[in-house]
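Annotated sample (chain length 136).
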Amino acid sequence: MHVWLDRFVRYHASGKPERAYARWLVLHFVWSQVRGVIGHKPGRELFLRLAERSSYHEALTGLDRYVELVFQAASAFFKAKRGKGGAAKDASVFFKHANLHHQFQRYWRSGANRFRGRARKAIQKFQKDMSVLEEQ
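Output written by the structure step:
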């Protein structure tokens, strides 16, 4: 299951070096938000079945959009926290900091995060689609 979630994250990071550095931060954050949906047996089995198909299922579009928005928030977080001038950190250094995920969680909840509202709608769509499919 983690492999398939990582594939969503890697897809959104491909071709964008800054996102490649943020990949683990985004994966950790996304997992913390979706484990309630896909961390239990029925949700996990459904997610695996949908993700293993050659083309993405409509139910996964909410998750796909959510991952994209978390990457956008991670980029904004980096730009806000990297520092300025000669002290500014490169993305390759910045995203290696220990416990960065705690700082990102605070940023995510802050008013500076302009992606949170759209991300909430995307994750709610994913949760709703998964629950509807679980009932079938």
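Annotation: The CA atoms of residues 66 and 120 lie 8 Å apart.
Annotation: Residues 2-135 form one domain.
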